[in-house]
Amino acid sequence: MTSDTMSIERYLAEGGKLSAPENTPPRYRAELMKLMASFVDSSLAGAAGFADVINAGPGIKERIAAAKIVLEKIDNADKVLRVMADFGTDTARYANAHPWAARLPRDSDIGAKRTDQDMRLAVFNYPLQGWGDAVVMNLLMGLAVGVQLEELCRVSYQPLGDAFREIAPIERHHVDLAIEGMERLTDSADRAELQASLSYWRPRVAASFGQEQSDKFARLQSLGLRHQDNASLRQIWQTRTDETLAALGLTA
Amino acid sequence: MPRFHDLEVTDIHKTIRDAVVVTLKPVNGSAAEFDFTQGQYLTFRRDFDGQELRRSYSICAGKNDGVLQVGIKKVDGGAFSTWANEDLRVGDRLQAMPPMGNFFTALTPEADNSYLGFAGGSGITPVLSIIKTTLEAEPNARFTLVYANKGVNTIMFREELEDLKNTYLGRFSVIHILESDAQEIDLFTGLVTPEKCAELFGSGWVDVKAAKTAFICGPEPMMLGIAQALKDHGMDEAQIKFELFAGNQPGRAPQRAAAAAATGAAKTATITLDGATRTVEMDAGKTVLQAALDNNLDAPYACSAGVCSTCRCRVLEGEVEMATNHALEDYEIEKGYVLSCQAFAISDKVVVDYDQ
What we know:
The complex is a heterodimer. By secondary structure, chain A is mainly alpha-helical. In chain A, 63% of the residues lie in helices and 0% in strands. The relative contact order of chain A is 0.13. Chain B folds into three domains: 5-96, Elongation Factor Tu (Ef-tu), domain 3, CATH 2.40.30.10; 114-243, 3-Layer(aba) Sandwich (Rossmann fold); 267-353, Beta-grasp domain (Ubiquitin-like (UB roll)), CATH 3.10.20. Chain B has helices spanning 79-86, 124-137, 158-167, 194-202, 220-232, 288-294, 330-334, and strands at 5-16, 19-26, 41-48, 51-58, 68-73, 93-96, 114-120, 142-149, 172-178, 213-217, 240-243, 267-273, 276-282, 312-317, 320-322, 337-339, 343-345, 349-353. Chain A: It holds the Pfam family PaaA_PaaC.
């Protein structure tokens, strides 16, 4: 047994994990809460936006897939909300704290800025326009969430890492559903419309990886809350998106 | 929100010279609230000279032992642990919150799992609960414990571990690593370093490949070293469960007195965030959070409705009033914490800190 002790900060910087709210230093707690809130708000807002297009699905299969995605995104939000509850969050009230279906006009330009209302990623403030547009958004965002979850599974707060590890395969399946949906659309729909949706969503999803704030990243990294910087994550997503679109015979 | 309940001490005995095992019984019909999962802990509170102290101690009983038991090792200068070791008596009442913590994995009776446990000193407490529960709930499970201590006389639960070896013959093994007492096998003397782990893993004493999960509880440097060694031997991060010593929270100074009553509209807020402090003008109708955000301070927040506690900060000077609070407990408010999304300044000047 080693007899020396170590500060929590050094423990975290060297890859240590925390497992209970009682052990989290204040700044760590704040950043962790922010990270969790961002995921919960994005999932709830994403689900609320997608719920509106279920009926736009061209057939029963598509509507089932869309409904399943809505259900599972809310369930994923719940998984993380339960971790927030350990820190004192009133989960029942939280779920109703914001109008999750609210969107800005399609042509607004907010960059990566969040609204003052909630912590959802900026991309979830833009409205979907019909079925094809929703499938495109779901594909691009699903690929982005996949990259983000690979990062988040390594988070130093172990109960949250466990929650994300449960969520990751579910989100991966949503990408599969989006690819299936795209395959049907490329067979039938207007390709120009799909391309237009891709051009609309791709820069907005790219912006969701955040900006290059190296000092902030360094701080989160020293707490074990982040590992790979935004630019690297965005690059992984770009590559995967290019490959996926190429396989579908699309560009953007 | 978790609440404190009364528990009666029904038994107390020493496991080593400076550690006691306390058996507790919920009173006032709160037994159901104390139905725990292996590896969880209880948070106690007690008043010491007018100041409330809260300390967490892990449950050492197995889930099906039918008792609620915690192990409390005396810490140098630790008010609560010293009191529990010296003055606590059978029949006394303690106050504790229902069990909390996530240091466990789900058990499957029909599974054929192999587990590893690593404990340093009193870090054995939650690991013991896990070992007892797992071996009983999974009749095919195997468990190997590596237990680090200074010497033979500081091994907590030594007899209990021997009994478990006999009860679960062939399924449970313990390797005692002693810092200062020599043992027959050289490998078992010294510190549990990454190098020591590599030797244990390489020589067949500990089978990392077969293990489903490793549970580690001990001093931070030891945990880091073991986790590294496990990863070097092919274990995935997701298979490694850590538990820090609970009850390691730094003492907090009492809240300062609120300043004199306020007048006028324009107020100033001095805000500390990420180690930097700035003083900003604040509209009487704006919250502390809004004042921070308006001045491009990256203050944490989420719900903006007083339900999530993301925006929590501490008032060091001045007085604020919260419009609503569904997230902070009374003891946090007593210490000066507020939800900044709900906090309006009452005094002309407020000083808040997000880093405390």
